[in-house]
TrEMBL record:
Record bears the keyword Nucleus: no
Keywords: Hydrolase
The species this protein was found in: Fusarium oxysporum f. sp. conglutinans race 2 54008
SUPFAM superfamilies listed in its UniProt record: Amidase signature (AS) enzymes (SSF75304)
Amidase domain boundaries: 12-121
GO molecular function, one term: hydrolase activity
InterPro entries xref list: Amidase_dom, AS_sf
Superkingdom in the source lineage: Eukaryota
Name used for this protein in its record: Amidase domain-containing protein
Family: Belongs to the amidase family.
Length: 135
């Protein structure tokens, strides 16, 4: 069982990380980040296991949204025959791709803003809605 002191230490570590993360954004004058939300196109329900694309923003408590793009996977797409996986994780992703049917699945993006800057996130989403012709 964890004590109140243990919990306080973990919260301090988290808050120190959040502070360093916020400083990095400020030093680089970042408004929002647009990046991948997953390792590939949307996967079948309950099969996602790579949370690293989005979980960081949960830790730092930054608002974010995941949006589909007009880009869709086509049925029958295959990996390059010369592809050599860099790790077991890369091999696992390739195996999932080869075993599954991602035909029609969208490639999605995540848009993230600073903590308490939800309105900037909504503004960026409005711009992307127009750029990507989303409804």
């Amino acid at each position: 069982m964890h004590t109140a002191v243990d919990l306080t230490a973990v919260h301090k570590e988290r808050d120190d990380f959040r502070l360093a993360f916020a400083k990095s954004w400020s030093d680089q004058d970042v408004d929002v980040i647009i990046g991948p939300s997953f390792v590939g196109p949307a996967c079948a329900h309950d099969t996602a296991f790579y949370w690293t694309y989005t979980s960081l923003y949960n830790l730092v408590d930054y608002p974010g949204a995941v949006i589909p793009t007009p880009i869709r996977a086509e049925s029958g797409e295959v990996y390059d025959t010369g592809y050599v996986p860099l790790s077991d994780a890369c091999r696992h992703v390739r195996d999932l791709w080869e075993e599954g049917d991602f035909g029609g699945a969208p490639v999605s993006l995540q848009v993230v803003a600073r903590r308490y800057h939800d309105n900037e996130l909504f503004g960026a989403l409005r711009v992307l809605k127009d750029v990507l012709n989303l409804s």
